Amino acid sequence: MAGKIKKTFKWLGLTLLVALLLGGGFVAHEWNADKPFYANNFYNRAFLKYVLDSPQQLTSMGILESIGITGHNAEWNDDSIAAGDREFEYLQDIMASMRLYSDEELSHNELISKKIVMELLGNPEQQKKFRYHGYPVNQISGLQVSIPRFLDTFHRVNTPEDAEHYIARLSKIDTKMEQNMESLLVSEQMGIIPPTFVIDKSVEIMQGFIDQPPEENVLYVSFDNKMQEAEGFDDATRMAFLDQARSEITATVYPAWQNYIDYFTQLREKSTTDAGVWKFPDGEEFYNYMLQVTTTTDMTADEIHRVGRAEVDRIQGEMMEIFAAEGYDTALGFSALITQLAEEERFYYPDTDEGREQILADYTAMIEEIDAGLDSAFKSKPKAPVEVRRVPEFSEKTASGAYYNGPSMDGSRPGIFYANLYDIKATPKYGMRTLAYHEAVPGHHYQIATQRELKGVPEFRKQTGFTAYSEGWALYSERVAWEMGFQDDPYDNLGRLQAELFRAVRLVVDTGIHAQRWTREQAIDYMSTNTGITESDVISEIERYIVWPGQATAYKVGMMEILRLREEARAALGDRFDIRDFHEVVLMNGPVPLHLLRDLVGQYIADKSS
Shortest CA distance to 531 belongs to which of 558, 504, 493, 491? Predict the structure, then answer.
């Protein structure tokens, strides 16, 4: 009986969600059809069925709350192997159903959606083969990071019921981690074991998490802050909830973390210092697969490596010209000059709380300035605002230099640019504008907030993405800002070129590690010599590429393709080329694989030429 009631409420929630997003006509006529009349209805139906089985996705979307449905906020996604099997089968069913729609019967927009779906679904055989390849727990990602970050960022606490759901999620963390342990054990049996340094740093982070008194843990502090900011919590109610949180952290969360610490401590005996995935079963095939997935191209590891080396030489040459113009002794060579620049105290803030607050304030001012001056390059701007925040201190030691979280679908949460302020030397003033433009405006925030606000497209296109497109756009945005004069100071331009150089070096080291069997130390040495970024950043970046094979190659590959397409359009259209139109084509279709972006720009050129 309980299961039947649960299914009834699940169906009710789905029906209301469909009605809210798509209108009642969709529910009445198309929900049960084998082949809905409109392909977009099929895409929406598939997406909605998928997200209804993802309480975390529903929480981050923030849509059901507006109609009073909140029960999903007490649950976690099912991460068991059995649930993964069901998801795989469901996705294959979607692929089979997609083939019921021929390309010829679809509208232009429906065909775009079909191509995106097919790209997202990918190669079923390779997905199955490589399901357990990789390191789901590592020094920068995994449950030990994602669970606290999710609760801090996405779980809203505006009412006592929200607080009850927060406690419920705390009480189920052990189950979620047990489910994920199933896959870790399979990977171990296959010989897919993280390098020793990955295990050591992961254990260190987890140990630091549980060594804190519960009252100082982010799960407690964030919960308290949210209740204090909300209405409806008197002191007695708030303290009662905090007592429950303390109990769950002590009795449920910390033991779950300790189980992982114990597991990885014993797994360390089986680990080696080999950094690349070439050591995996079918490691070469796996890496080529990851390159295809992340770049959405057919570029090989050797090709990416060669392009990377050529781009490193080009960008360093441009930087040397600026050094010469600013009076530096270029006879010293690039490595010495970029190191000298990084050591100049005039480019840094005080290593104090006040200095870090000033960094956040200056980032905000930079974003406001450029946002007000982009009309000549953009026709459309997102409605959602963007805020600058510090990376949570519990994760900043091993987190990347910055990252972005998109706004909620209902507009209650802005886009957030998180800046890592752990090492003050990792934030030179000459690099700040470029980072702000990359993470916020006109980079990730413009792209992701625009995506969330798209009209007339299936819902899945507002939520999904492609690394080469999104990161390529963000890196391209740095170039656009420079072209528009926002980095006219030569040192700001050095910062821009250093950021692009950083991405070019990634092409070299990622393929070096995973295809050419470089050691961790070889990669660190190459990046240090050729970028001049701080040692702490170099180490965290190289270790990131080791645990996320292929991902770092997507940035430069995506940027180069967007630039190439822009110049192709400019050459073909001449005086009829308008960069605002080009940016509309790139942004207003949402994230697409690069091969589809080529088709869209080609169509834009043809339309403007006719």
Answer: 504
Residue 67 CA to residue 284 CA, distance in Å, equals 49
Residues 495 and 391 in one domain: yes
Domain that holds residue 248: 133-273
pLDDT of residue 7: 38
The CB-side HSE value for 154 (13 A sphere, CA atoms) comes to 24
Are 533 and 440 contained in the same domain?
Answer: yes
Provide the pLDDT for residue 18.
52
> Both 313 and 188 in a single domain?
no
Report pLDDT digits (tens) over 477-488. Answer: 999 999 999 999
Shortest CA distance to 531 belongs to which of 431, 418, 438?
Answer: 431
Q: How many domains does the chain have?
A: 3
Q: Per this entry, what is the length of the chain?
A: 610
**Same-domain check for residues 89 and 103:** yes
Q: Which residue is it, tokens 């997102």?
A: 382
Final residue of a domain: which of 533, 557, 581?
557
Q: Which residues contact 484 (CB under 8 A, 6 or more apart)?
A: 373, 374, 376, 377
**At which of 79, 110, 131 does a domain end?**
131
Whole-number Å distance between alpha carbons of 162 and 156: 7
Can you tell me the distance from the alpha carbon of 546 to that of 564, in angstroms, rounded to the nearest whole number? 29
